[in-house]
Prior knowledge:
With 796 residues, the protein is mostly beta strands. Helices cover 9% and strands 36% of the residues. Among the domains are: 15-73, no CATH class; 82-166, Immunoglobulin-like (Sandwich), CATH 2.60.40.10; 174-273, Immunoglobulin-like; 282-365, Sandwich (Immunoglobulin-like), CATH 2.60.40; 379-466, Immunoglobulins (Immunoglobulin-like), CATH 2.60.40.10; 479-564, Immunoglobulins (Immunoglobulin-like, Sandwich). The chain is built from eight helices and 48 strands. It starts with a strand and ends in a 17-residue tail after the last helix. Keywords: Glycoprotein, Immunoglobulin domain, Membrane, Receptor, Repeat, Signal, Transmembrane, Transmembrane helix. The chain crosses the membrane at residues 570-596.
Amino acid sequence: CVIRDDCPLIKGAVWHLNNIVCGWVSTVLYSVANQSGWNSTVFIPSFTDTKGYLTCCVLHTFPCQIVGAVEIRAGFPPPAPQNLSCLTNLTKPETLSCQWDPGQDTHLPTQYTLYTEIRESNTYVLPPGVHHYRIPRTGFVFFSEIEVYVKAVNALGQATSTPLLLEPLESAKFDPPKVLKVQAEPNRYGCLRLSWGLSEQQTWVTTVTLEVRLKTANSKQWSKEPVPVLRLMRQRPMEVCRLLHGKEYHIQIRVRYHQSPWSEWSNSNTAVTLEKAPTGRLDSWMKVSREQRQMPLSVHLFWKPSKKFRDNGKILSYVVSRQRQPTKKGQLCVTLDSHCVFQLPRGARKVFLSAGNAAGTSSPTEVEVFQHRALAAVSDVNVLPHDESSLLVQWTSIHSSIVTGYVVEWRPLWEMDPSLILFDHIDRNQSSTLISGMRIEPYNPYGISVYPRYKDGIGLPQTVEAYSRQKAPSATPNLRVREILHSRIELTWEEIPLCQRNGIVQSYQIFYWDEQGNTKGGKMLILEKRRVVLRELHRSSSYKAFIMVSTGGGSLNGSEVILKTEHRDYFTIILIVISSGVGLSLLIIISVLVCFSTHERLKMCFWPKIPDPANSSIKRFNTLDSMQDIPPVHDMQESSLVYLSHLSLLDLPKKGLEKMGGEITDDPWCHCSDTSDLGESICGCPHALSPSYIGSHQHSVPYATVVFDSPYSIQPPIQSHAYLRSESTQPLLEEELEEPSSPKEYQNVPIRGTSGEKDSFRECLDDGPGKGELCTLWDDFPLLRALAMNDVQSET
């Protein structure tokens, strides 16, 4: 950077590289003709960028003034172009397209030039950055060799690629050919005849190499190794052999010229090879039910093609027969499925299985009838996922000479179709097998069973559930409240459907918390019970809960449910009600027993014995008799007996007595009769009662009022007798007394120890010092004046 002396801005020089101040700056004074100034030089020790700008500045004020700049480019010499290839396009207009790999980037402008030499050299210059070129039809000949190479040039050097020598037609990629017709030739088993052709623009090519690929109708993949056909003349039919008999094939072809690239595959066409009778054996698996001995055997037979079996056509039926040569009489089962159920007599030892198509029937496969017996089973059966479409089954072998092998059976658990059951026979020396196929799918459950085969039967199976891949369940069970009490809640739930489990359920967990957010749960639960009891809860409190289900592939939380405990425990209420009922029942029972034990006393308290005059009779009372119906009095200081001291009886009309001639006969009122009110006879009579008299007067009672007092012997002389008027409303008219059923006269009851003399109540009318008083009292009771009272002294 040169700065003249007359520059008014100079105060110094500064170098910038990409706006960064550079070091190692040196300034030298120079002088030339008519000019003098300063020469500033900079040295850059390391430049790692591919591109940069270097500027020279003079200082006078800030910022500095740029007086000069230069662009710096860094790069590499061009490498030789690699992988040069050319491809001929036979579609009009025909061209030869070449391309190459430029190699490492030089970071510098590089020029590429394509050179071709046939009889003379041709040069094609390409724009920068272009690494391919299409040579026109005038620049090459189909059947003549041509040499092609590429040269690269930049500021630091040049390089040339390796020359490519080729015939343009051998570099041509043909259009996809056409399969015109495919058919089976008569008497050519396992062969198909194929007619084909090239595209219309390439029909001038006479000889090509052809390749064929095939697949059966039920297959999804084409054959891995196509069938090559070398040097095939144009439009000439070809034959493909060594195919399976009676199979429908899809066929495609592709072509090329010598070592040229292959064309795309042609359209697909189908044909069926000639059929033959099936050949080979069928693998079988028989399961015999264990029923009563007198019943025939129920057999379920499964089969599948063995590795050597060839159906040689479309199978029309499988026949299970008891005879080697199947006849209609001996046939047990005819089906198109791969399994069959039939019955056998107990003595059967073998059956025969054969397959048939339109061309014939295969040789029968002998199947021995082995019954399932309670023989030893294998142990430690374990299933591991091998990949998403296969499972590895392992078990512990049985070391016994009578073991002939094992049978591994598997089926999808979400479907019960027996046609989905698959099996495999395993050698006795193996303890593992890999089951695979299109039916093994991830996230679906499979039941895998291992049966040991013995010389004389089939052992017990060991079955496990397995998944080729697991993930979290698709759904969770719904929590249901079974019982709510004041301090605990019982929850239940149902199992998740198999199609939604997506794995083996390993645990259920219940999480619950109260209104304050205090978590109370989270423990593992037993899988089989599907119930849990939340204990130690508060009364009348709300809780939230949810269930989490975990499998081998993840976990899923269920929706929250709200729970609320009761204010009072129903069980406690039931206990209280039961206890109260039992207590009340006991009280009633005790009360009833007491009532029965004191029946007479209670009856006297609530229903006192009131004499019924119509149904009563007179009897003599003594002291003991008078005390029977008197309840004990505990409040009295001294106990005193109560004696009968006075009786007031009805009087008969006078004309009733006069009719008897002034004499008193045996009066029915004097006879002893039981009263319903007093319980004993109230009169004592020395005369015997006749049965006829008792029958006609046993319910008659005289009208009377009974008064109880102290004994007559100790009664004060000045005490007057008290008489009570009867409250009875029964009429005592003379007309009624004159009825034949009424008594005609009354008489006093003789006292024990007296002469038994009869005293008429009329005698009280005579003069006497002691009876006048009585007569005066009777006048106050006109209805009772016919009665006479005698004092009866109680027996002591």
